Amino acid sequence: MFKVCIIGSGMIAKSAHIPAYKTYSDYFSIVGIFDVNKQAAEEVALEFGIENVYTDAETMLKEQKPDLVSVCAPNMFHKAYTLLALNYGANVLCEKPLAFTYADAKEMFDLANEKGKTLMACQSLRFLPERLAVYEQVKNGNVGEVYYAELSRIRRRGIPTWGKFHLKEFSGGGALVDIGVHGIDSAIWLMGNPKPVSATASMNKVHANELGSAKSSGALKDNVTANTFNPDLMDVESFSSGTVKFENGAVLSFKVAWAANLKEENNIILAGQNCGIDMENANIYLGTDETKDLTVVPNGFNDEAFYGHFCLVKNMADVLKGADEPFVKPEETLNVTAILEAAYKSAEKGTEVKIDV
């Protein structure tokens, strides 16, 4: 039985992390929850039967001595809370993005190695059945070396009006670090994690006055408290597009939107030496004119809104028991972070930015 503490009591904690730990109650016991908003933490604790509520994270870690900490705080606090948890001897499952600079991410992983602990980023969308199906094709050598990939993650009207996603002070960025990071992670994972060497990106704030529902912006259980959203205060991007180049000559093209006048899309396309794959349409394009279907097998958590977190928590249980390796590896997350850092620098400077990792 591993003791778990939760840092942050917002949507992702109560919709994903806590239900996942409760599902695997043979392995995990949630012993404490922290939030600077005491009332919010108390409401979540009452809902899920968590006995101990804290408004000071360090006090919680001192008193509860958890084996594992879920960091579910706003993006800009990921590094500080992760380092704090590691220094108190806990393993960490941290929400994405792990960090905003390669140097910060490396510092976090270096401390985890020093302490002999596991740190894993919550790149939960790797567990989408279609992505796992493509991964099997890649792993079996059917795709061959990937020389081009294309990521499209588009919401029609999905700017989050709940939480503080629209404020750079708390979120660090907009659509790219909220939903684009999942696609970038999955794309480079499927490409074999090649070394990135440069990025070019542009970012815009568009359609900030044209809002959808909480569910359309990622609160899949619609269990959030709406804020008074002022689009004039939004200082992060709602649309981003760009290109990443890799040392092996491969290229990744991406477009990511919280809101855009385009079709809803969550797709990755791969072009490999042996075949190409259009994930959303489940097509495999062979080296001839032939096309065949990609076999997609549903997993056991498809009824859960955030079932990828259930898979991550099960993987973490196996890692802590010494029965498996982290499904999301440090070297992959480091490359994702380097790409994000370069993309934001490129958008700011209006030029291609070199990546040195």
Quick structural summary:
By secondary structure, the chain is an alpha/beta fold.
Characterize the structure shown.
- The chain is an alpha/beta fold and 357 residues long.
- It has 2 domains: 2-121, NAD(P)-binding Rossmann-like Domain (Rossmann fold); 126-302 and 333-354, Dihydrodipicolinate Reductase, domain 2 (2-Layer Sandwich), CATH 3.30.360.10.
- The chain is built from 10 helices and 15 strands.
- A 9-stranded mixed sheet has the order 14-13-12-11-7-10-9-8-15.
- Strand 11 and strand 12 (276-278) form a beta hairpin.
- Helix 1 crosses helix 9 and helix 8 (175-190) packs across helix 10 (330-349).
- The longest helix is centred in the C-terminal third of the chain and has 20 residues, at 330-349.
- The mean pLDDT is 95.
Pick out the low-confidence regions: none
How many β-strand stretches?
15
What is the residue-mean pLDDT, rounded to a whole number? 95
Name the overall outline.
globular
Q: Beta-strand percentage?
A: 15-25%
Q: What is the CATH homology-level superfamily of the largest domain?
A: Dihydrodipicolinate Reductase, domain 2
**What is the H/E order?**
EHEHEHEHEHEHEHHEEEEEEEHHE
Oligomeric description of these chains: single chain
Q: What would you call the structural class?
A: alpha/beta
Query: How many structural domains can be distinguished in the coordinates?
Result: 2
Indicate the radius of gyration in whole angstroms: 20 Å
Portion of residues within helices: 25-40%
CATH class type of the largest domain? Alpha Beta
CATH architecture of the largest domain: 2-Layer Sandwich
> How far is the first residue's CA from the last residue's CA?
38 Å
Strand order of the largest sheet: 14-13-12-11-7-10-9-8-15
